[in-house]
Amino acid sequence: MQYTEIMVRYGELSTKGKNRRSFIMQLAQNVRGALMEFPGLKIHADRDRMHILLNGEDSSLVLPKLKKVFGIQTFSPSIQVEKNLEALKQMTQQIMEEIYTGKETFKITAKRSDHDFELDSHGLQQYLGDAVMDVCPEIKAQMKRPDINLRVEIRRDSAYLSYETLKGAGGLPVGTSGKGMLMLSGGIDSPVAGYLAMKRGVEIEAVHFASPPYTSEQALQKAKDLTEKLTPYVGGIQFIEVPFTEIQEEIKKRSPQGYWMTLTRRMMLRLTDAIRERRHGLVIINGESLGQVASQTLHSMVAINEVTTTPIIRPVVTMDKTEIIELAEKIDTFELAIQPFEDCCTIFAPPQPKTRPNLEKVLELEERFDIEGMMARCLAGLKVEEITPQQSGKKEEFADLL
Ligand code: ATP
Ligand code: MG
Questions:
Q1: Do 292 and 361 sit in the same domain of this protein?
Q2: Which of 185, 221, 305 to mutate to test the pocket of ligand 1 (most atoms within 8 A of CB)?
Q3: Shortest CA distance to 90 belongs to which of 146, 161, 7?
Q4: Residue 331 lies inside a defined structural domain of this protein
Q5: Which atom of ligand 1 is nearest the CA belonging to 285?
Q6: Of 122, 144, 167, which residue constitutes the final position of a domain?
Q7: pTM for the full model?
Q8: Helix, coil or strand: residue 112
Q9: Last residue of a domain, which of 144, 167, 190?
Q10: 186 & 162 share domain
Q11: 330: which strand partners?
Q12: Handedness of CA 43, 75, 200, 324 (dihedral sign)
């Protein structure tokens, strides 16, 4: 079917009162970003709906991209029809002939914002219902849960027909909740944490700690590739590489191994917080999941978290590993994440990290270090790079028709 436009229904933002306008503006900007590769598109964001005019662009390429934009409840590819009964009847019949095989029931849902149109919604439903019966004599009209719901909208400019409602990504438009720094390792959990934060409108920047030559070029590339997997939801993500070698060597040299992990994590958090401040982020996001490993006991979290009062969002903290993996598969980060490239935590992982680190002891140990000096040298070597989506142009199946 040659669609002419996609009609987008907003998600939760409909309930956001006076912020509504800025939510819609942000969503429109994100949609433009996600669909940048289609220069023909025209995007109009109204108060209640967004209309994406296809202008000849291939809807089967546009729809999968749109599906990843947060803040969209549902969307319907539609066909523009001249605003007269004969044209509407013809197009209705053409659509039905194309799609009715195997379907038993249908209904017509008519909506009219142009009240000067010759039939009202009820009359239009009758008229087009009869037109359907003419070409599909076996099909039955059914109001509740019909196999086909053919929607017709009479608007000022034109009439529109649609018969599919696709599920959007839900959530809130990215950017409407402010910015957070995502601590992104090469593992399964942190990309999922980033995805979930974005889903609630948080714009993210990825902060990755690398310790060359102990960590490889491939490990760094893997973190960038994982970041790339998160870009379709936003358009582009800043990737910040943090040179962490000196600090890890110092910790290893100057402290008992039971405390390496706690001291390392505290340094990571201090640095992420400093980067956040420089880059005007509001919060930190990480992939910690309660009880998964030594650094993720509540006692460890307390000892690590002590370095900052900045809120730390831990979207996967209460999820089971299987639940996290399910999401990782959904956002296509799982296969990448399980590739075996050691990251800085694995390489410097002590054989027996403390699961109940003693904060007083930690503070005492930290007196051995020139923390400010180490941080300053580290921050002087940050590398920032924008990661953008690959232009894959992949066609995807829509199994989840509503
Ligand atoms: P992940 O699967 O995200 O690697 P994990 O279960 O392996 O998590 P840890 O290695 O203990 O857990 O890391 C906990 C969190 O600390 C990570 O989710 C991530 O947010 C952060 N983190 C760990 N290593 C790095 C790193 N090299 N760069 C940036 N953040 C990191
Ligand atoms: Mg990890």
A1: yes
A2: 185
A3: 161
A4: yes
A5: 20
A6: 167
A7: 0.87
A8: strand
A9: 167
A10: no
A11: none
A12: negative
Structural domain including 345 reads 179-396
Q: What is the CATH number of the domain that holds 32?
A: 3.30.2130.30
Could you give the CA distance from residue 140 to residue 198 in angstroms, rounded to a whole number?
44
Regarding the beta carbon of 197 and ligand 1, being less than 6 Å apart is answered no
Please name the residue whose Cα sits nearest to atom 1 of ligand 1.
Answer: 187
- Structure tokens given for 395: 């066609």
Pairwise CA distance, residues 119 & 101, whole Å: 29
Residue 241 lies in a domain: yes
User: CB-based burial of residue 198 (10 Å sphere; 0-12 exposed, 13-18 middle, 19+ buried)?
Assistant: buried
Cα–Cα distance, 12 to 20 (Å, whole number) = 10
Number of domains making up the chain: 2
Dist CA 252 CA 271 (whole Å): 18
How far apart are alpha carbons 330 and 325 in whole angstroms? Answer: 8
Which ligand neighbours the alpha carbon of 319 most closely?
1
- Of the ligands numbered here, which is closest to the C-alpha atom of 184? 1
Average pLDDT across each block of 10 residues of the chain; the chain has 402 residues. List them in order: 91 70 92 91 92 94 94 95 95 93 93 91 94 92 94 92 94 94 96 97 97 94 96 91 97 94 96 98 97 82 96 97 97 94 71 86 96 98 92 42 37
Residue 288 resides in a domain: yes
Residue 58 gets which letter from DSSP?
Answer: -
148 and 196 share one domain? no
Residues 43 and 129 in one domain: yes
* 207 and 111 fall within a common domain: no
Preceding omega of 213 cis (within 30 degrees of 0): yes
